[in-house]
Design goal:
Length: 327
């Protein structure tokens, strides 16, 4: 039977325009990917709105909503629409277009059968710094917004979620005006924090956290804090999510490695069905035209010294094939 789907891509082309299956540029910035029942779901900021000046951070776009795209091969993505939309009728709502909604991450709670999304919520000047929570019974939404909190009483900016093998989940968030990163344990339904938390990288100004686990080791890649401008990434290792987290090195290698290839981390995606196969996801921000921001997806490799991320203009998932196991 003829393939009636339009599979435009058979590889990744980091930093270039990436269209969805309708030929439209993907709008999923600061995002993350969930694998669920045989499909990948990419959630991210839809920044398809004019860029304007915004306080100390320089630039912002109005809140449009959170996009969701689905894929079974990670190259070709189908737009599923906005799974959480702006609330233009209520100026006081966290999701009013005049606010900030960034870095959404989604995990699935098998006890409640809910998809749970956390995101950075802010005012237009980035001085509120809260974490928002929403839930949905379906991965393609609509998500119901539950509200925003100061997790463990702390301010919260860039964030990610990590769900451990034992079902425990954590919110990892830049706090204390970005000086310190907090790791806050989530409650059993993932919609609040438990009160159990730890601090990492105290006074070191790290943001854009992306966490993954390989064997018994937890890894966290972060960026420095330079607004929309790229800077050096660093990774850390721990034997438990709560730490201690030991800073290791810059994972990026080669030209532009000290600028994270002009990108900023957002997520690390574990490839399904392959051991030790992880994709580093990052955003190339275009500060004065944020909707044009691009994506950098690169494979992570491991050696005795730690992890490495090398630039590649073009690559595909065969880089993860391990000849010794035939997988
Ligand atoms: C860096 C953060 O990582 C982005 O998500 C965004 O909040 C910008 N700062 C704003 O300047």
């Amino acid at each position: 039977m003829a393939d009636i789907t339009n599979k435009e891509y058979s590889c990744f082309n980091p930093g270039t325009r990436w269209n969805d299956q309708d030929g439209q540029p993907i709008q999923a910035h600061g995002g993350g990917v969930l694998f669920w029942e045989g499909k990948y779901y990419w959630y991210g900021e839809n920044k398809d709105a004019p860029t304007e000046a915004a306080g100390a951070c320089g630039y912002r776009t109005d809140v449009v909503g959170i996009s969701c795209y689905t894929s079974d091969d990670l190259y070709n993505w189908t737009y599923e629409g906005l799974v959480l939309s702006a609330e233009p009728e209520d100026i006081n709502h966290d999701l009013h277009p005049s606010k900030i909604m960034e870095r959404p991450k989604v995990i699935y709670n098998s006890s409640t059968r809910q998809f749970v999304m956390w995101m950075h919520i802010d005012n237009s000047e980035y001085t509120l710094a809260k974490a928002g929570i929403s839930v949905s019974a379906s991965p393609t939404g609509p998500f119901r917004y539950l509200g925003s909190i100061f997790p463990n009483g702390a301010d919260s900016r860039d964030l990610t979620l990590f769900q451990d093998d034992n079902g425990k989940a954590y919110l990892i968030h830049s706090s204390d005006w970005n000086k310190t990163l907090l790791i806050s344990e989530l409650n059993s339904d993932y919609t609040n924090v438990t009160g159990n938390f730890s601090r990492a990288f105290i006074d070191q100004y790290r943001e854009a956290p992306a966490v993954f686990k390989r064997g018994g080791t937890y890894y966290m890649i972060t960026s420095g804090c330079t607004g929309w401008a790229p800077n050096i990434a660093l990774y850390a290792e721990a034997t438990s999510m709560m730490g201690l987290w030991g800073l290791k090195d810059n994972p990026c290698q080669g030209p532009d490695a000290r600028k994270t290839f002009h990108a900023q981390s957002t997520f690390v995606l574990p490839l399904q069905g392959k051991q030790d196969a992880f994709i580093f996801m990052a955003d190339i921000w275009i500060p004065n035209n944020l909707s044009e921001s691009k994506y950098v997806w690169l494979p992570i490799s491991f050696d005795e010294d730690g992890i490495q991320i090398n630039w590649s203009d073009q690559w595909d998932l065969s880089v993860f094939d391990h000849p010794e196991t035939g997988t």
